[in-house]
Amino acid sequence: MNKKNIILLAIIIMLIVFITFLSKKGKVSLKTQAVASASGLFETAKKADSKGDLLETKKAYQRILSTATDNKIITKAQSALSDVNMRIIFSSLETDSTLVYEVLPKDSLQKIANKFKTTVALIKRSNNLSTDTIRPGQHLRLWKGKFSCIVDKSQNILTLKSDDEVVKVYRVATGKNNSTPVGKFSITSKLENPVWYKQGAVVLPGSPDNILGSRWLGFSLAGYGIHGTTDPQSIGRQVTAGCVRMSNSDVEELFDILPLGTEVTVID
């Protein structure tokens, strides 16, 4: 190789190195800008939240998720958005998913809940009612969005949706040896502090041996459902006899908002 070719090769190598450097610098710069943008939006969300503006808080977290690529930022924003979504559901705030109902003379909370496919607990929480007493002419804020759940056995998560919007994602435990049945089911029974009937034995609520925990939401498939636990360390694994297991605090949250008839889809 003559001297001219050697010089030409050296120039080409230098150009390649320089272009690679610029490319890496550009990527770092874009990543830095994205982190800075997310930080600004987190600050915007924090300020909106401090003012009690839950809808603006929600929008800020949604903007983060629509632009973020960093997994840590995404996880943080998803968790924060889930929290805001639940606070909105339990609040008196009027949104596209709510309506205002005027109580009629013969109404009861259960009658209203049945009519609008919601729960008494949710009506009470979102209207700050301490008792079941209501009066004609009273205005109640009701959630009209249709709730549904998707259980993903491969990830051990339960996704709560209102209409087509993801509200919150919960960590759950599912059946060992892939025993949780796949398909579409509906919630046909709801029990607080359920008794566990174990092969002829009766395990009372509150017992450390009662694996059902504080709540039971029974499926249309007999023997299966969503329930709490006395073993929170098992959440996130495939260890149950086939049911979907949640922490007590999580299942109590679901219990209050899911009416009978709610669709639950279980996928592999």
Structure description:
This protein has 268 residues and is an alpha+beta fold. The protein is built from six helices and 14 strands. The strands form four sheets. It has an eight-stranded mixed beta sheet. Strand 8 (196-198) and strand 9 (201-203) form a beta hairpin.
Q: Tell me the total number of β-strands.
A: 14
User: Which ranges are low-confidence, i.e. pLDDT below 50, for 5 or more consecutive residues?
Assistant: 27-34
Count of DSSP-assigned helices: 6
Rg over CA atoms: 26 Å
For the termini, the CA-CA separation is 62 Å
Q: How are the strands ordered across the major sheet? A: 5-4-3-14-7-10-11-13
- The percent range for helix content is 25-40%
How does the major sheet shape up?
Answer: 8 strands, mixed
From the helix content, strand content and strand pairing, which structural class follows? alpha+beta
Q: Approximately how much beta-strand content do the residues carry?
A: 15-25%
- Mean pLDDT comes to 90
Shape, principal axes of CA atoms = flat
One letter per element, helices H and strands E, the order comes to HHHEHHEEEEEEEEEEEEHE
List its traits.
single chain, flat, 268 residues, alpha+beta, 8-stranded mixed sheet, 24% strand, two-stranded antiparallel sheet, 6 helices
